[in-house]
Amino acid sequence: MQTYYYLAASQKFLCEDEPLDEVFRERYRNYKEQEKEVDFWLVKEPAFLEAPALAAVKAKCPHPAAAIISSDRQFITWLKLRLEFVLTGEFQAPSDTIPDALASLVMA
């Protein structure tokens, strides 16, 4: 089972109000230089929020929601410190309620 860390907020906030393009470009460049596989994704209307264990998070998050998901806890922690008005947490996949985190990325 893989642990994924997330930062969730409204789509408007993450996709329009915050200049995340620059952050992602720098991160992609850094990963390419290190020959590291990309381990973060920006997902609109993330399916993992539908899991019963995340009902409280879904209730607190403005809709439509968006999330940045990563297997790197430090990256999500860094983003949380940089951004305001976001929710963070973690989930394990696959599980009984979250079959495959990467599949939820495709469905979003």
TrEMBL record:
Family membership noted in the UniProt record: Belongs to the ycf54 family.
PANTHER family per UniProt: PTHR35319, YCF54 (PTHR35319:SF2)
Record protein name field: DUF2488 family protein
Species assigned in the record: Prochlorothrix hollandica PCC 9006 = CALU 1027
